């Protein structure tokens, strides 16, 4: 009841002070508010521009891969990403690939940083991070592990540049081979040491020949 009485009082006041019906009064108020909003928008200061996105510094282009040729396992360790001036290398099945473009994975702090600078064939085949598996020896692996290693090799061949091969080292067992000389008998040794004398033919003089012939001639004369 109080609300209805208040509304009736308001309508009577509108009619008394404006001479307009309540509907016309509220319509005029709405139009005036809209005009005020439009006019104030024309003269208002423009809104500030949105903040510019932060520009990240452009990464330096990677140098082209350098062919390394044949590299020993010890030399390959120098390319594990610890020196940013050197390329990041990794080997699979004796083939070395430049993985510098994936430093976030194989560089220091990456999830596969243990594989960098090594032939990690066995570790990749077994998906192992054990130190004893960080080797290129794949002997004793099962067919499923070899298939997994083959998939890794195809991935590296299609994505990275091959830059060399790992030099194979064959372990050599230390051992001395003694050379024995043939045995010689004492008789042979003494015979070799004894001086040899050559027999010279005896020379017969002409006088001795005549002396031998003389008795023969005398016997012939006596007969």
Can you give a write-up of this model?
This protein is α+β, with helices and mostly antiparallel strands and 223 residues long. Among the domains are: 2-41; 69-166, Flavocytochrome B2, Chain A, domain 1 (Roll). Helices cover 43% and strands 8% of the residues. The chain contains 8 helices and 4 strands; from the N terminus they run ααβαββαααβαα. The chain has a 4-stranded mixed β-sheet with strand order 1-4-3-2. The chain is rod-shaped. The chain starts with a helix and ends with a helix.
Largest beta-sheet details: 4 strands, mixed
Low-pLDDT ranges = 175-201, 215-223
CATH H-level superfamily title of the domain at 69-166 = Cytochrome b5-like heme/steroid binding domain
What distance separates the N and C termini?
Answer: 212 Å
Range of strand content: 5-15%
CATH architecture of the domain at 69-166: Roll
Order of helices and strands: HHEHEEHHHEHH
Shape: rod-shaped
Q: Give me the side-by-side strand order of the main sheet.
A: 1-4-3-2
Topology:
Layout: H1 2-18, H2 22-43, E1 69-71, H3 73-76, E2 89-92, E3 95-98, H4 103-106, H5 121-126, H6 143-159, E4 161-166, H7 186-193, H8 206-222
Parallel strand pairs: 1-4
Antiparallel strand pairs: 2-3, 3-4
